[in-house]
Amino acid sequence: MAAVASVSDLTQCDLEPIRWPGAIQPHGRMLVLHGQTLAPVACSAQWPDAQRDAVLAALDVETLAALPPGGSPVGLGRLQPSGMPLIDVAAHRTPAHVVVECEPATAGSSRQDPLHALVRDFLPRLQRAQTRQELCELAAGEIRRLTGFGRALVYCFDEDGHGQVLAESLQGGYDSYLGHHFPATDIPQQARALYQLNRFRLIPDARYDPVALETVDGSAAREIDLSQAFLRSVSPVHLEYMRNMGTLASMSVSILVEGRLWGLISCHDHDPRHLPAQTRVACEHLGQLLALQLEAKESNADAAQRLELRKLTLAIVAYLADTDASLQRLAQHPGLLRMAGATGAAVVLDDAVWSTGEVPAAAQIEELARWIVGLGVEAYDSDELARHFAPAAAYAERAAGVLAISISQVHRHVILWFRPEIVRTVRWAGDPRKSVDENGRIQPRRSFASWTEQIRGRCARWTPAETGAVRELREALIGIVLQRAEEMAAVATELGRVNKELEAFSYTVSHDLRAPMRHIAGYVDLVLQLEGTQIGARGQRYLGHVKEAAAFAGQLVDALLDFSRMGRAALKPRGVDTAVMVRDLVRELARLETGRTITWDIAPDLPRLHADPFLLQVATRNLLANALKYTRKREDAHIAVRSVRRPEGEGLEVQDNGVGFEMQYVAKLFGVFQRLHAAEEFEGTGIGLANVKRIVERHGGSVWARGAPGAGAAFGFTLPQEQPNNIT
C-alpha cells in the first residue's frame, strides 16, 4: 500500500504496514538520524532546509546518543532554533535510527504541569476505589477533565477480543456507548500489538492529508520504523472509521495488565483537538496508574479464589484418602461442584458413570468422555462445547460448557464439570457485521446506533483459577491412585505368600491325615472280623458308623488334596474345543446314570476357549456332575449346556431343573466344604464348586450361580480371550 494511500479496504488491514507508513500527521515535523553517526537520513516533506538545519543545530548530541534503544519518546524540552518559533521536541531510538519529533509549542504548554495535579489529587481517589467499575468511572472523568475531549470511554477486551464499554464521561450532544460492545474486527491484530508497544496515540484532526517522509536523496522513506512516534500517520481505514463515527479528533491510552492489552481509554471529539506535550504525558501516566490498580484488584481476587479452591482440593483429597480412594466417591463429595463453580459433575470410569447435580444422560456423558480422551490432553475446557463437539447441542441447557481432567493414559477415567447455557443479550455499537459496497469492497461501519444480538450456546467462562485448581486436583488424584496401587500390590504380594504357605500346609496336613484314616478303617475291620461274634448288635452298628466316618474323612482329605493341587499345578493353556469336551463328558457321566430319564440340551455353538485342557475338563465335569446329582429326584431330568459370550470373555453355563437353592446363600456355594443340602440327601464333599472357582479364577475368569428352590439352578463361567498375561 502506498504511504499516503487514501482508499481504505478492510481486507488489507492485517497486511497494512502501519509501523512503517512512510508518512506522518501534518501538525508536526520529523527528522530521522542515523543510529550511530546521528547524520540526517530522512525528514518530513516540504520542510525548508534552513529550518531543518536549525533544528539539527539546536539538538544536544550527547542527549541523543544516550537515548536507550526501543524506549518511548523522551521529551527534550522546548527549543527555539534560529529563525523559528518555539517548538516542543521529543526523540526516541529505534534499532537503526534516532527519530526526532517537533511540534509547535501550544499556548497551554507553559501552565502548571498537569502530572503534578494528577499525582496529588487523582491518585488518592484511585487508591480509595473499591471496585473495577469505580476505577474505570474515575479514570473516564479525570481524562476528560485533563484533555477537554467531548467523550471519554473506558472499555475492556474479552477473550474473543470484543470490547465492552465499562465507563464513560461525556458532554451534551454526544451519544452514550455505556454498556455497548465493539467487535474485535474494529481493531486488527497488528493494531493491538502496536497498542501494547506504544501506549498513547493522538489524532488531532481525522481530515488530515499525510505528509510523506523523504530521505536526504529525495526518495520515499518506507523502511523507517515509526511504531513509537507521536506523529506516525495512521491507517486510512481508521480515519474513515472515525469520520463515520462523527469524530474528528481521537486519543487512545492503552491499559496493560500483566503484559496483556486489558483495554483502552478512548476519547472522541466532534471538532479537531490538539494536546500539549505535558497533558499527553499526564494521560499516559493516568493509564498506567489505572492499569496498576486494576492489576492489583484482579490479582487479589484471583489469589483469594485460588486459596479457596486449594482448600477445597485438600478437603476432597483428604476425603478420598480416608476411604478406599475409589474415584467414584468424588461424586458424593459436596465440594466437587463448588470447586469449578459448576451445576453438574460426573466421574467416568471406563463404561461406568457416577454423577451429581444437573448433567446430561449417562450415554451422552460417556460419548463426551470418549471424545475428550481422544484429544490426548490432560485437561480440557470450553464455554461453547457444541462449537467443537456437535452432539453437545442436544443438551446445551444442562451442559453448554465443560471442564474436564483425564486421570489415566490407559483407561477412560475422566472427571467432568458442567455449566448450563446462559443466553446473553449483547448491545453492539452498530451492526458488527461488515458491509460490502457495490465494488465488493469491505468497508468500516457507517452506523454506530445500538444493535442488539442474542447469543446462545455458551456458558460462563471457566476462570484461570478454576482450570488451575482442577489440574492440581488431577495431580493429587494421580498421587492417591498410585499410592493405593502400591499398597494393593504389597497386599497382593503378602496374600500370595500366605496362600502359598496355606496351600503347602493343607497339602501336608491332608497327606498326613490319610494314613490315620486308613488305620482307623483297618482296625475297625479287624475288630469286626476277629471279635464280631462277641460284640452285640449295637456295638457292631457303632463300629459301622466309625468306619463310614473314617471313609468320609478320607474322601474329604482326598478332596482337599485335589483342591490344593488345583492351586499349585502349572497351567498349560491352549485352544480347547468345548463342544467336543462337553459331548465326551456327557457320554461318560450318562453311563454312570443308567435307568434315569435325562434330556440333554447341548447348544451347537459352544465356544473355543483358551485354557488348560485338563483343568477346564475338571471344572466342566464338576458342573455337569452337580446337575446330574441334584436332578436325581426328577422323573424327567433336563440339563442344558449353553454358550456364554460377554465383553469380558466367553464360557459355558449349565442349567438344570433340579432342587435349586435359595439365592441368599449363593455366596456360600463356591466355598470349601460348603453344602446347602444334607449329606444323607445328596452325597458329596462340598469342594467341587470351590475347585471350579479356583480353576476359573486362575485363568483370569469369573463364575456365577443362580437358582430358586424347586425351580432348578444354573452355574456358569467365562474366561478371557487369548491373553496369556491373564493366566496365573
This entry's quaternary arrangement is single chain
Strand residue percentage: 15-25%
Q: What structural class do helix, strand and pairing data support? A: alpha+beta
Average pLDDT, to the nearest integer? 83
Q: What is the helix tally?
A: 16
Unreliable stretches: 1-11, 724-728
Helix content: 25-40%
Rounded to the nearest angstrom, the radius of gyration is 45 Å
Q: What does the model show?
A:
- The protein is an alpha+beta fold.
- Among the domains are: 113-199 and 233-300, GAF domain (Beta-Lactamase); 323-433 and 451-459, Beta-Lactamase, CATH 3.30.450; 488-568, Helix Hairpins, CATH 1.10.287; 574-726, Histidine kinase-like ATPase, C-terminal domain (Heat Shock Protein 90, 2-Layer Sandwich), CATH 3.30.565.
- Helices cover 38% and strands 23% of the residues.
- The chain contains 16 helices and 29 strands.
- Strands 1-11-3-2-6-5-4 form a seven-stranded antiparallel beta sheet, covered by helices on one side.
- Helix 3 packs parallel to helix 7.
- The radius of gyration is 45 Å and the shape is rod-shaped.
- It starts with 22 loop residues before the first strand and ends in a 9-residue tail after the last strand.
- Mean pLDDT is 83; it is low at 1-11 and 724-728.
